């Protein structure tokens, strides 16, 4: 089965941004609307990374490289199946995005952004996640926004999630799957 978003080309949407920006929620909506397989970047972290973050210790680049390569390899697996896909990944630095761009297929980024106060509030109210609110400032300090030449768009998350999904699909020029929810 081929899911190329109407372009004839396998493509991958990496929903990026700091913690609390709504990556997981958007991916849920996009998966429903596009019918593409999706993955959560957190699932690719080795236990040592999860333990560090749970303890409030920011990850180093050395911690991140194997994690990013695992995500890249998952994207390539989807391409080899002929499947476009969606993945969440903070992808805060261009160097991290460069690793993801090594995947086969077209890799596109959706940078979700919101004011720090909203991000902090969202993080404080979520349950079952290992990322403490105290790490938000380090993420914001690390963030390197998309620059010209990177295949991606910026989407402000100042509206309900369904509208964020609408903005994303429209901005990327994607077409919902026939019969997909919306």
Describe the structure.
This protein has one domain: P-loop containing nucleotide triphosphate hydrolases (Rossmann fold). It has a five-stranded parallel sheet with strand order 2-3-1-4-5, sandwiched between helices. The chain is an alpha/beta fold and 182 residues long. The protein has helices spanning 23-34, 47-54, 61-80, 94-101, 116-125, 136-142, 161-172, and strands spanning 11-16, 38-40, 85-88, 106-113, 152-156. It is 42% helix and 14% strand. The mean pLDDT is 86. The longest helix is centred in the middle third of the chain and has 20 residues, at 61-80. It starts with 10 loop residues before the first strand and ends in a 10-residue tail after the last helix. It is built from seven helices and five strands, in the order E-H-E-H-H-E-H-E-H-H-E-H.
Structural features:
single chain, 182 residues, alpha/beta, Rossmann fold, 5-stranded parallel sheet, 5 strands, 42% helix
How are the SSEs ordered, and which strands pair?
Layout: E1 11-16, H1 23-34, E2 38-40, H2 47-54, H3 61-80, E3 85-88, H4 94-101, E4 106-113, H5 116-125, H6 136-142, E5 152-156, H7 161-172
Parallel strand pairs: 1-3, 1-4, 2-3, 4-5
Helix pairs in contact: 1-7, 3-4
Please outline what is shown here:
By secondary structure, the protein is α/β, with parallel strands linked by helices. Helices cover 42% and strands 14% of the residues.
Uncertain spans: none
- Return Rg in Å: 16 Å
Tell me, what is the CATH class?
Answer: Alpha Beta
CATH fold naming: Rossmann fold
Would you count the extended β strands for me? 5
The CATH level-2 architecture is identified as: 3-Layer(aba) Sandwich
CATH homologous superfamily grouping: P-loop containing nucleotide triphosphate hydrolases
Q: How are the strands of the biggest sheet laid out side by side?
A: 2-3-1-4-5
Helix tally equals 7
User: How many domains, in number, for the residues?
Assistant: 1
Secondary-structure content class: alpha/beta
β-sheet strand percentage: 5-15%
The major sheet is characterized as: 5 strands, parallel
Mean pLDDT: 86
Shape estimate: globular
Provide the helix percentage. 40-55%
Question: SSE string, helix = H, strand = E?
Answer: EHEHHEHEHHEH
Terminal-residue CA separation? 22 Å
């Amino acid at each position: 089965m081929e899911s190329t978003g109407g372009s004839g080309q396998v493509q991958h949407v990496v929903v990026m941004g700091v913690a609390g920006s709504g990556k997981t929620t958007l991916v849920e909506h996009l998966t429903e609307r596009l019918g593409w397989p999706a993955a959560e970047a957190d699932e690719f972290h080795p236990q040592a990374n999860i333990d560090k973050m749970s303890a409030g210790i920011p990850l180093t680049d050395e911690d991140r490289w194997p994690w990013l390569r695992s995500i890249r390899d998952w994207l390539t697996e989807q391409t080899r199946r002929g499947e476009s896909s969606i993945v969440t990944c903070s992808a805060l630095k261009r160097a991290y995005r460069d690793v993801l761009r090594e995947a086969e297929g077209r890799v596109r980024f959706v940078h979700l952004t919101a004011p720090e106060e909203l991000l902090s509030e969202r993080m404080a109210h979520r349950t079952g996640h290992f990322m403490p609110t105290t790490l938000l400032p380090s993420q914001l300090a690390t963030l390197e926004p998309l620059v010209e030449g990177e295949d991606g768009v910026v989407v402000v998350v100042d509206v309900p999630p369904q509208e964020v999904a609408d903005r994303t699909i429209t901005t990327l020029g994607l077409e919902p799957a026939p019969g997909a929810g919306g």
